[in-house]
Amino acid sequence: MxxxxxxxxxxxxxxxxxxxxxxxxxxxxxYTCPGKHACPSQCxxxxxxxxxxxxxxxxxxxxxxxxxxxxxxGGDGIMFYFHGKKDQNFxxxxxxxxxxxxxxIGKRGEGxxxxxxxxxSIGVLFGGNHQLFLGANKVASWDDSIDQLAIALDGKTIxxxxxxxxxxxxxSSNLTIVRSDTTNAVTVEVENKFMITARVxxxxxxxxxxxxxxxxxxxxxxxxxxxxxxxxxxxxxxxTGVLRQTYAAEYRSPLKLGVAMPxxxxxxxxxxxxxxxxxxxxxxxxxxxxxxxxNDFSVLGLNCAGRPGGRGMVCRR
Length: 317
Description:
The structure is a single chain. By secondary structure, the protein is mostly beta strands. It has one domain. The strands form five sheets. Strands 7-6-5-18-17-16-15-14 form an eight-stranded antiparallel beta sheet, with no helix packed on it.
């Protein structure tokens, strides 16, 4: 359809019938916070449920949010930007038992000295030797009904039915994965360790126009990327990374409050050699590094090929 061909995602109002509804899954919230709730108008397709408060909230406006170009909300609630560089990997969180890297994609802004960047995928190391991969497939045109979210655990592709609430519990890693929408959105959780919500979204023509990204229907790439929300339950006082010490008890933000676009630099401290490497300068995780080439899914034990007509990607072991 024409809208998909133009990488178009409609701007939705709170009363629009296409606005997403979200709900809580699992005990006790399916009893204490039952039913579906409409997303706020400012994030009609990218909200999540705050099950304790029993209300939908914008992913990008809560602590642990990582969205857009990339815009971070630290554990202290303070917003900042970390642009990094396209086609590189950066350590978001590194602790003794948890390490999270992000792979950035992007394009150089015309007349600019930096890249526009977005988080295309994350690699999560946890539980000593488990590796979780969440990534957005590269697609030329966007259709929200087609799932473009790639998931792998310890080198094995994870397939979930395209059904909201579909759940997979993996006892070997204590990981639970739940679809929070029929396509392109999941919540992954290790009890008492962390919870991550992830949604694949494209750059829309409207976003490109507003921010001067220079991404058009002729670009051949919608720059599909992840919007993320992190929640951590057991970080140590020594945690570091881009989101890093914003979760540490004695952290005080160095950012100048009131600045329209506060930017955190120091890319050299957080850059890693690949999406699963623990070789950033500030690393705290004690596991071994894994050699991996960016965007090479084969190193995860996966053989990936595009679907007919460019409709996403199929991966097999």
